Amino acid sequence: MSAAPVSLSDRLFAFALWLLPTRAISHLAFLIAEIRLPRIKNLLIRGFLRAYPAIDMSEAAEPEPTQYACFNDFFTRELAEGARPMPRNEHALVCPVDGQLGMFGTIETGRLFQTKGVAYNLRELVAGDDSLAAAFLGGRYFTLYLAPHNYHRVHMPLDGRLRETRYVPGRLFGVNPRCVRAIPRLFSRNERLVSCFDTAIGPVAVVMVGAFIVGGIHTKAAGRVCPPHQKARRHTSYIDAGDADHRYVRGGQMGHFMLGSSVILLTGPDAVDFDPELTAGQAVRLNQPLGRLVPGA
């Protein structure tokens, strides 16, 4: 697979981000988004809605924008019940987010592609853990980009029990298509949280990748993971924790982002067949089938 040419404007955009203090700017954005003064928070929310007219507030559990206590609450708004129905096929692997499907494929020789011809390393992505990387070698991967106008909660693609999480510090480059084209190994450089689940088809990982202006990664199990943006890796095991708190059903919420970012979904070998309708670059919605669980996997 030969690399697609990268435009000069993409390179300049990525270089400008490289020079910026992205962590400081992102943390400041988080603090501003937490402001609860009605005049300021309503100004932020209304300005965002004007900038992104594709947002459909009728899908939200609370459709009135000014009812949210702060911009962060608005941005991480929940969907109204029934807004993203589950497919009838109980063997479908469902999309965990609203967004755009980037590259997807089989993890061969420990490589995943972030764009045509540009690969990054599975072992680096999962915090340098050899045994964890080996569990997904030969499996499937799906890269899902959440634009600012998308719904920003992350849900489970299938039933599973949380086994462990691995927080990996890193940069906060943008994860929009321009940066994905221009910055090598982007997803294994950025700050991220790797959540590993035991499922009926074997191990599954949901990797929440931080990005520029993303003020936080939150999970149901741990609460706010960042900020603050840590400098040390952190491993948390849930093996001995009670089942009730860490069992998730397909479609159940597992976390959310503050502002746009990406999710990388990993499954083990011989566990999932791709949905034949999938194409790189297509828009996807929460609970849309991405593939079919392979019986006996």
Discrete helix count? 9
What is the helix/strand order? HHHHEEEEHHEEEHHEEEEEHEEEEEE
Radius of gyration: 18 Å
- Global morphology: globular
Instruction: Give the helix level as a range of percent.
Output: 10-25%
Portion of residues in beta strands equals: 25-35%
Characterize the largest beta sheet: strand count, sense, and whether it forms a barrel. 9 strands, antiparallel
Classify the secondary structure makeup into a structural class.
alpha+beta
Question: How far from one another are the termini?
Answer: 29 Å
Stretches with pLDDT under 50, minimum 5 residues: none
Question: Would you tell me the overall average pLDDT?
Answer: 91
Structure characteristics:
single chain; 297 residues; alpha+beta; four-stranded antiparallel β-sheet; 18 strands; 23% helix
Describe the overall structure.
- There is one protein chain.
- This protein is an alpha+beta fold.
- Helices cover 23% and strands 31% of the residues.
- The strands form 4 sheets. Strands 2, 5, 7, 8, 9, 12, 13, 15 and 17 form a 9-stranded antiparallel sheet that branches. The chain has a 4-stranded antiparallel sheet with strand order 6-14-10-11, with no helix packed on it. A 3-stranded antiparallel sheet has the order 1-18-16, with no helix packed on it.
- Strand 3 (111-115) and strand 4 (118-121) form a beta hairpin.
- The radius of gyration is 18 Å and the shape is globular.
- It starts with 7 loop residues before the first helix and ends with a strand.
- The model has no long low-confidence stretch (mean pLDDT 91).
